[in-house]
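Notes from hallway chat w/ T.B., transcribed later so I don't forget. T.B. wanted the structure written out for a chain they're using in a teaching module, and asked if we could keep both sequence and structure tokens in one place. Agreed to drop them here.
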Amino acid sequence: MEIKLVKQENLSGDASRADQGFGCVATEQPPQFDPHTETQAAYDFFAETGFVVLANCLNTEEVAHLNEFYDRTQREFPERWGIREKPKPHHRGQGLIYSQPLLDHPELDPYTQHARSHPVVSEILGGEENVRFSEFNFREAPQNAGVGAMNFHHDAVRPDRLIRKPYMPVDWVCAVHYLTDVTDKTPAFCVVPGSNKFGSLQEAYEALGDTYQEVPIRGKAGTCVLYDTATFHTRFDGDGIEGRRTWHQYYARGGFLKSSLPTSDRYVRPPTPVLTDWNVFPERLALHEDPEKRRFFSHWNTAQCEWAASGFSDEVRNSMPRGKE
């Protein structure tokens, strides 16, 4: 991937501040792929870099529908978004988050396997039979909120990723759909290409050398960024005035895969563990009449098992973390 860089105030070599990045910021944007006509090219780019940008994943009507959802639910259920005098701990520094909108809004169900992004996700996870739902949420850095950057970090990882062969398919994938235009004035999702195969950002910086770069991804509403959850990423600061809305969906890999480690050529990769211990999804999806849909929603954590065992009772749901925002 050839992207020009600009060296800003360089923090290189200061391990104590490494999570803030090294100032090697790309001045050009990564390519965007059409998910239908360039599925293989999108997969190849992801396999090389740990992320890929998909163009026009949401159409104008879908963008309008989801923004209307934001406006309506923030007005009718502000507490679900963390709009309150004292934000919940998982909202602090994150802006607004609606953690589990699928629980109460079946109109969102069609987005969970979206026709544009889902085929590329399937390729990345080794085929449609291996794709499992993990999490679905909405986030907003509101206008005039002054929400700034966060440290570089990765999400859930498996330690064998550093030595297994082959590396693909990945363990978890996250899809970040932009619901508003993301420019140099708005907060932007930012990735470090190729960092998914290193244990720390410092290690990635030292190993990648001149190819190390921090890439803030701009795009119009409807753009989708897919990333390996092991890829180091952050939210870049905007001007503190312009806001941004995003829909985040996480996927896990199901099924058993043959792979290898240096100590054995008979290593079998089990299904990816559950992403969280609190995320649950409703009966209409967990016990869907379509067996393929049930398989997609079959990655249950203990909370989901207990809720199902109770007959999906409201009492049990409301007792769980984030079960009732």
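Follow-up for T.B.: Confidence is low (pLDDT under 50) at residues 9-13. Might be a good example for the class.
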